[in-house]
Amino acid sequence: MTEYSPILPREAVERSFAKQGPKQYTLWVDIEHCIGCNACTIACKAENNTPIGVDYNRVIEIEEGDFRDAKKKPDIGVTFVPMPCMHCGRPACQAACPVGAITKREDGIVLINKDKCIGCRYCAWACPYGAPQFNAEAKVMEKCTLCVHRVEKGLQPACVTTCPAKVRFFGELNELTPLIRERRARSVNIAVVGTDTKPSVQYTK
Amino acid sequence: MNLLDNSLTRRDFLKVTGSVAVMTQIQPASAQEWLSQVGKTGSKADVVGTDAKLVRSVCLMCHSGCGIQGTIVNGELVKLDGNPYHPNTYDYVSKGDLVEESDLDGGIGGKDVGTLCAKGQAGVYALYNANRLKHPLKRVGPRGSGKWKTISWEQAMTEIAEGGMLFKDVPGEETRVVEGLKSILSNDKPIGPEDSDFMDEAPPEGYGPKRNQFVWAHGRNEQSPLTPRFVKEAAGVPHMLNHCDRCSGTLYNVIEHCLNVPPYEIGAYADYEYCSYLISVGSNVTHADYPGQTRARYLQKFAKRTGPYAKEFKHVVVDPWLSPAAAKALQSGKGEWIPLKPASDAFFLIGMNRWMIDNKAYKADYLALPNEQAAKKTGRRNWTDMTYLVRTVEPKLYLTGKDAGLGQSDYVVLVGGKPTLFHDVEGAADLDAEVEIKGVVYKTVFRLLRERSHEKTLEECEQECDIPPGTIAHLAREFANAKHPVIEFARGPIQQSNGWWNGQALITLNMMVDNIDRKGGYIPGHKAYGGDVKNPVKRSATGVTIDRHKSKYQGKKTLSTRPWYPLASRTVTSEFFSSLRQGYPYRIKAYLNYYNDPAYTQPFNTPVIEALLNLKAMPLTFSIDANMGETSQLCDYVLPDSTYLERIGGFKTYPPVKTRVAGVRMPMVGTLDPVTKNYRGLYPDVQTGDDTLIQLALRCGLPGFGKDAGGPGVDLFNSWQFWNEYFKNGDYKGEPGLDPDSRLIKLGGKFENPGKQYDAEGVYTRFPGSRQVRGLMAYASNVAANKNSMTGKYFDGLPTYRAIIDCKEQPLDPALWQEYPFQLHTHKDAWHTQSRTMDNLWLASIKPQNFAEMNPADAQRLDVITGDWVKVKSPSSKHIPFVELSLGDGWFKMQVRVTSRIRPGVFSVNQGYGRWGAGGRKWDADGKSQFYDKRIAAGFSINPLYMADPVLGDRVMCDPVAGGTQSNGTPLRVEKV
After folding, report:
1. Does the beta-carbon distance from A152 to B331 stay under 8 Å?
2. Cα–Cα distances in angstroms (integers) from residue A117 to residues A124, A130, B47, B202, in the given order
3. What whole-number distance in Å separates Cα of residue A139 and Cα of residue B56?
4. Half-sphere exposure of B226 (CA within 13 A, CB side)
5. How far apart are CA B461 and CA B344, in angstroms?
6. Cis, bond preceding B563 (omega within 30 deg of 0)
7. What are phi and psi of B102, to 5 degrees?
8. Across the interface, which of B341, B831, B900 has its CB nearest the CB of A63?
9. pLDDT of residue B260
10. 20 to 30 A from B597, CA-CA: which of B29, B174, B626, B798?
11. Using CB atoms within 10 A of its CB, is residue B333 exposed (0-12), middle (13-18) or buried (19+)?
12. Which of B41, B115, B324 faces A164 most closely, judged by CB atoms?
């Protein structure tokens, strides 16, 4: 049996995922060339006016290998992984929310309705990626909206527009996939073991 | 609302001014869907309606000068993006030679938008930062006590200009009389024994007029030419101290010499877009330097992915730290990381030269060209001095035609062994040769280089660098065989006491592969478009500056008490602060600190703090600052500055951008009086630094500003008037100044077609514009002509195999390393600049604190794991009371992070953290506690731990030629707490 989230029974999750639209707007992040500069993190803050302590996008550094002997060639690697909301195909946050404050739109974007939110943090607990965060001032949960307010105007998300190394791309999943193949980029699956929320964000390396 | 209230956030500001909250704008029906889906509570996204305004300007979160555009809604800055017209942020081609508005779809909602890095994006926070000063302040306690009172501009200007018993209410200063700026600057009598105990070290013409006892020091000055007009032409003093000695002073100096380019203060970089083999030495390519985001884009997008050599491109990063660029190089599977020991660069670079020479991997036909006609014949536009003959007896200068008895000429070469005037040679001259004339041996520069490089074997070099044997040969071979090789540097190799010579060695490698100015090669910059404001009544700045840059020692004593720097074209600010204690070479009376924070940023900042606290050494100090910085808080007066988003001016860009650019800075918010053109930003009692300087000049009766100061009918009473005139002259002749409907203001600058990067043949860049055809200098005859004023010995004109040296060019005592076995190191994250980012809580939240980074091998030996505390000291570190983690007796406490990203033996603490100003330390104004947030003070600063020069004892070690500070590699002792 596939676990959809650590705390919810399967039936509850299946009920929530009854409807899924044909489209999925999402991001493609090229972590081979991401330099970990965090321009995306701050552009997002500036665009969404989040308080200190709430960051819709976070960049993680993964250090691998060990280097201790300068007489040998270093065997070490560092990868930078930007983590926005994954706008999952089967959002655990949506399933966890006791008041039904989270919607998945026809175009795939997952949104928290902060007016309905009671700030219980179940969604944060359920999400394997740490996307929903608690706004201590407003006492509601917030997360990346894929800049839905910009997307509706035909603009790109702020994180995509600002990326200096040009490693973030926005589009419809069905259009991004052939583009990735054309570039011969190797897909990397960033998923938390034991969960199957179907994260839509594509990572390549 | 009390304007001293320190909790004014952007939201509060909205309430204060009665602006309409963004969310109630009328939206078209279809756009309501998402609004109802996210709700109105909590964070509100920027909803841009039709009444948003776009203002273009230039960023100043670092010094790259990226064009920005701000979205303004009801007078509030809502968002910043890159200005797509500015080539730092966007790649495009224009139709004509100059970019026009129609070349891009760049308006609000347009499809062309420039990129902007984390710092630039955080500019919104910087503008509304709660730590901003809102009124002029005067200290009411002793210096550094953190006790202030609000005063009016009138009182501030009067007291600074007139002087008097300004601090009679401060214990200990009841009878101290301070000479005012007006009196100081009107004193043209020569500096004499009443001002100096060192008259016997003065040059024959003396130290200059007494008005030289006024000193200006800036950290980040992008208000030129207004600021030098104030300092050099109005005040008429030569003291325009900058921060270059701790930054890139030696870099620009050595590049300007070797590449023979005019001092546009720009340096040289790799042509990232088209090179195929790149060696970066001490250069944090993706996270630092200029322009930060442009280098990242050129490297990541062009060189590696879409450039013509993307498939074969290889990046080698030489750095004790695995920078993100190094990580990316390794990740590709094609790159390399060479983690050499800090301060061993000379051995690596001269070693590379040695391999190239021994294996004849250099372009012999190019190096043999001695002049312009020979170069032109082979389709080249530059040549080198490799064939020029140099004396082997001091002074080791080029052999001139006169000394060779051949006629008038600066250089002599050998052709088939026969001495010939260099300009008489049609083709090649002898490259590796020598000759004896009148009993003196002369050798070619190339032969001298070869002999110098042979003073060490490659094994010895690799031993010094602590890198695997064979590394140098392997890299040099690949470098020589690559189609478009280039080796570049930033601060790593040249911010060192041997920095000048390290720089020479590196640039020589580029000469060896004939890539200077070439497409895909090593390229210098250009002169930005520039305007002008006439100055019919200007004073001249003469005399010797306290730091003795550009001054040759000609005193009566054989040797000087402290070093002189005749060849340093940028100031040696570390030397300035340390010399003040002795009053060397003369005492000063007033110090103006502009947008500057040396008390925090100077390596070995302890003497800087001591100088600032010393009433005798610095009788009158005042600072122009937007917040209560570490240095400002040690001054007598602080005059509030506006932020860069409330300013007028302009700025250039850097060599990675290969077309001509000038960005124009215009205020994003605030009000401009339509008649007087007086500008005010957010706070009514805060004015631009420009306006403060103009008013100060007028107060002190100085020329250069005021009525008709820019010529008949050109008044200069405020910032707008100055820049309006500036943008009508020079390269802007015929343009309408700051007219908001002009192309200049609409585009945010003047931009040449970004597609016009190379000459017609596509072989060379078009820059440097005014001196494309020229000879390059591998040898530094100007250096060899000068003596080290502390030893009386001539400097070496060739690269030298040295690590760390003191001011007398002696190596450090090897025994020091027994007790201090670690080497100091530092680096920088992309979202930090030195001293204007940690107080920006958006940026601080990315990485709330830094750590002292240490290799697992060392951590194991010390028995520490990540999170453990250690204490660290240098042979010269001293207690700093303002630093909470200063334990006393020179020990500083820090938290460790164990990582393989730093090589063994190194203790690395990155810049920007461990602050105690700008809101990081408590302070009072009018008896009330001011804005303070301990998050600003998080982390640790390495600056107190740089080692002092063993001879002088009171200053960080510096390059004796160009003054660059020894910014890495010095000894440290680390113990577990």
Report:
1. no
2. 12, 17, 22, 76
3. 37
4. 32
5. 8
6. no
7. -70, -10
8. B900
9. 96
10. B174
11. exposed
12. B115
The Cα B900–Cα A1 span in angstroms is: 40
Per-residue confidence (pLDDT) for residue A193, from 0 to 100: 72
Here the tokens at position B386 are: 């490799």
Residue B831 falls in which region: left (phi positive, over 0), alpha (psi -120 to 50) or beta: alpha
State how far the alpha carbon of B141 is from the alpha carbons of B66, B169, B612, in Å: 41, 8, 15
Name every chain B residue with its beta carbon within 8 A of the beta carbon of A113: 36-39
What is the model's pLDDT at position A186?
Answer: 81
**B221 contacts B227 by C-beta, under 8 angstroms:** yes
Hunting for tokens 């390269």 — which residue is that?
B731
What pLDDT was estimated at residue B333? 86
Q: What is the dihedral of CA B666, B240, B630, B923, to 10 degrees?
A: -70
The secondary element (H helix, E strand) that includes residue B695 is helix B689-699
* Residues of chain B where predicted confidence (pLDDT) is lower than 70: 1-31, 49-50, 265
Q: CA–CA separation, B83 vs B115, rounded Å? A: 8
Residue A1 binned pLDDT confidence (cut-offs 50, 70, 90): very low
**Sign of the dihedral through C-alpha B41, B44, B45, B49:** positive
B845 and A152 within 8 Å at the Cβ level: the answer is no
* Other Cβ atoms closer than 10 A to A171: 17
Task: At B876, list the tokens.
Answer: 């010269």
Portion of chain A with pLDDT greater than 70, in percent: 90
Asked if B7 is an interface residue toward chain A (Cβ–Cβ < 8 A), one would say no
Cα–Cα distance between B349 and B909 in angstroms, integer? 25
CA distance B518 to B516: 5
Q: Which chain B residues touch A163 with a CB distance below 8 Å?
A: 115
Q: Residue A15, class by beta-carbon neighbours within 10 Å (0-12 exposed, 13-18 middle, 19+ buried)? A: exposed
Per-residue pLDDT tens over the stretch A52-103: 999 999 999 999 999 999 999 899 999 999 999 999 998 999 999 999 999 9
For residue B109, list chain A residues with Cβ-Cβ distance below 8 A.
153-155
What tokens appear for B120 in the block? 């630039």
Kindly state the tokens that stand for B591. 């110090």
Angstrom distance (rounded) from CA B665 to CA B749: 8
Residues making up chain B, counted from first to last: 977
Q: Strand locations in B541-648, DSSP E?
A: 590-594, 620-625, 637-640
Q: In this structure, what token pair is assigned to residue B102?
A: 């129609």
pLDDT of residue B23: 30
Which is higher by pLDDT, B724 or A195? B724
> Cα separation of B598 and B575, whole Å?
12
The pTM of the full predicted model, rounded to 2 decimals, is 0.95
Record: contact A54-B43, CB cut-off 8 A: yes
CA-nearest of B788, B857, B854 to B824 is B854
Q: Give the confidence band of A114 by pLDDT, cuts at 50, 70, 90.
A: very high
Q: Is B92 exposed, middle or buried (0-12, 13-18, 19+ CB in 10 A)?
A: middle
Probe site for chain B from A103, A104, A162, A163 (most B CB atoms < 10 A): A162
Instruction: Please indicate whether, in this complex, the C-beta atoms of B40 and A114 are within 8 angstroms of each other.
Output: yes
Interface of B with A in 313-332 (CB under 8 A): 322, 324-325, 327-328, 330-332
Residue B810: partners with Cβ closer than 8 Å, 6 or more residues away: B950, B951
Taking contacts as CB-CB distances below 8 angstroms, the residues of chain A near B33 are 152
pLDDT at A200: 93
CA distance A52 to B109: 28
Distance from CA of B88 to the nearest CA of A (A): 10
State the nearest Cα–Cα gap between B976 and chain A, in angstroms.
20
Chain A CB contacts of B86 under 8 Å are none
The ipTM estimated for the assembled molecules is 0.94
CB-CB contact of B956 with B945 (8 Å): no
Yes or no, beta carbons of A38 and B901 under 8 Å apart = no
